[in-house]
């Protein structure tokens, strides 16, 4: 099987690393890729949001499967164009991808499918924003309704800051969602779907705030780990039954079946599991940790989803132990990152036991050096017998890498490794509690996107 992976980042590099381990995959190509991906597979420069260009490349390569990584090409209709051309594609249609492209649409689908979530108000009116602040109280959660690369959310006790974010979104011509805050830790669960059937992967947890202790502004994600041994028994199956399957069923009922991976962003609250958000693709950096644990051949699994052959009874195989992913970010990220700085020590990092490096924002300069080209430059992915060992290996690896002005969090998976992740005590739902959603909305801990 020949596979084309569309996208430039760490998520795509992680998928390519897994695809290369699949004995059924004979060849992998990437477009546009990055400097690290180019060391592993052939890369093809193109605009990933141009459906015609992606179709032309897939035909030229005679690809048996195209995997679309980022959200923007999905919302641009790349998967639709591939399907119309008769090329198997793992990724939802433009209409189905609205589950991520519009947070208001996601809330509408959740309401129709009776999926538990937070109360929220979707609006283009600043007066309604202020009314929602009064109604839901602090902390205030304000989300840009459209795609925001993981940084369109403000969660704050400061009402002035929340209102300023809402005004910024509205002034740009968009709409916002104001949502009640959900207590409890957050969990990411990827669920593969062929439009009818759903197969969950391992739950993971990511770290959105830029600094240790969940301080500072939101980012696209500064690290992740799996498994989550602190989750209650039966968690994954509960999410499949109460969240993923109802949403997939509702989208199919609407005539827009969802084929791809449904990213369920969840809060484990005192009143049970609540949906924070959906994404229509694998999340970055959780993908790096989850796929590092997957032993089931990835290419065959994605092709089955693309061709409507997923079997819900299929038992996926996972490596024992744990995986931790640490993001190395450029100076000034998540603001305007500095780019063009040489990255050194990559081979030394990869030589550490259980460690590999996924590139995200990297290119080669005219001198042939690998240099930074984005905010999140790369991820160090480490496997170990448990979280403690995976953390130790990951941080040994990232210390080997040199990038002037770079920064990373030092507490990825620390609380879990020290058994300090706590769940809020259960309490019965009250009238108007999360799950009795009114208009489209969301939100829990500070890691929304």
Query: What strand order characterises the main sheet?
Result: 11-14-17-21-18
Fold-level CATH name of the domain at 2-99:
Rossmann fold
Strand-residue proportion? 15-25%
**Nearest-integer average pLDDT:** 92
The helix-and-strand class reads alpha+beta
Q: Report on the biggest sheet.
A: 5 strands, antiparallel
N- to C-terminal distance: 34 Å
Rounded to an integer, what's the Rg over CA atoms? 21 Å
Helix content percent band? 25-40%
- What count of helical segments does DSSP give? 15
Taking pLDDT < 50 over at least 5 consecutive residues as the criterion, the unreliable ranges are 430-449
- Strand element count: 21
Query: What is the global morphology?
Result: globular
**Highest CATH level, the class of the domain at 2-99:** Alpha Beta
CATH architecture of the domain at 2-99: 3-Layer(aba) Sandwich
What does this protein structure show overall?
By secondary structure, the chain is of the alpha+beta class. It is built from 15 helices and 21 strands. The strands form 6 sheets. The chain has a 5-stranded antiparallel beta sheet. It has a 4-stranded parallel beta sheet with strand order 2-1-3-4, with helices on both faces. A hairpin with a 3-residue loop joins strand 12 and strand 13 (215-218). Helix 1 runs parallel beside helix 11 (286-293), helix 3 (51-61) crosses helix 5 and helix 7 (103-113) packs across helix 10 (235-253). The two termini are 34 Å apart.
């Amino acid at each position: 099987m020949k596979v084309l992976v569309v996208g430039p980042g760490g998520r795509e590099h992680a998928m390519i690393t897994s695809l290369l381990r699949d004995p059924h995959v004979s060849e992998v190509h990437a477009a546009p890729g990055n400097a690290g991906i180019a060391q592993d597979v052939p890369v093809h420069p193109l605009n990933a949001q141009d459906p015609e260009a992606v179709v032309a490349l897939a035909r030229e390569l005679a690809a048996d499967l195209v995997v679309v990584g980022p959200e923007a090409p999905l919302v641009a209709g790349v998967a639709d164009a591939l399907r119309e051309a008769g090329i198997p594609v793992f990724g939802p249609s433009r209409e189905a991808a609205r589950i991520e492209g519009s947070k208001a649409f996601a809330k509408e689908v959740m309401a129709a499918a009776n999926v538990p979530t937070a109360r929220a108000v979707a609006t283009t009116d600043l007066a309604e924003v202020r009314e929602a602040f009064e109604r839901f109280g602090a902390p205030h959660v304000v989300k840009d309704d459209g795609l925001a690369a993981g940084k369109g959310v403000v969660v704050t006790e400061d009402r002035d800051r929340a209102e300023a974010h809402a005004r910024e979104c509205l002034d740009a011509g968009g709409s916002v969602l104001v949502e009640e805050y959900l207590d409890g830790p957050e969990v990411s669960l990827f669920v593969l779907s062929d439009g009818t059937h759903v197969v969950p992967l391992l739950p993971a947890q990511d770290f959105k705030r830029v600094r240790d202790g969940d301080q500072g502004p939101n980012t696209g994600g500064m690290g992740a780990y799996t498994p989550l041994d602190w989750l209650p028994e039966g968690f994954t199956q509960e999410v499949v039954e109460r969240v993923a399957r109802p949403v997939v069923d509702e989208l199919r009922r609407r005539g827009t079946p969802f084929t791809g991976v449904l990213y369920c962003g969840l809060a484990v609250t005192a009143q049970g599991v609540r949906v924070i958000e959906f994404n229509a693709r694998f999340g970055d950096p959780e993908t790096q940790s989850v796929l590092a644990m997957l032993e089931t051949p990835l290419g065959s699994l994605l092709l089955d989803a693309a061709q409507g052959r997923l079997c819900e009874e299929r038992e996926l195989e996972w490596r024992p132990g744990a995986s931790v992913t640490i993001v190395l970010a450029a100076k000034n990220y998540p603001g305007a990152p500095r780019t063009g700085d040489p990255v050194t020590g990559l081979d030394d990092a990869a030589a550490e036991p259980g460690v590999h490096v996924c590139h995200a924002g990297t290119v080669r300069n005219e001198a042939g050096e690998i240099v930074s080209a984005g905010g999140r430059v790369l991820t160090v992915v480490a496997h170990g017998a448990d979280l403690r060992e995976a953390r130790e290996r990951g941080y040994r690896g990232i210390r080997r890498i040199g990038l002037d002005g770079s920064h990373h969090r030092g507490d990825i998976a620390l609380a879990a490794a020290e058994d300090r992740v706590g769940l809020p005590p259960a309490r019965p739902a009250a009238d108007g509690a999360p799950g009795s959603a009114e208009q489209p909305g969301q939100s829990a801990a500070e890691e929304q996107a």
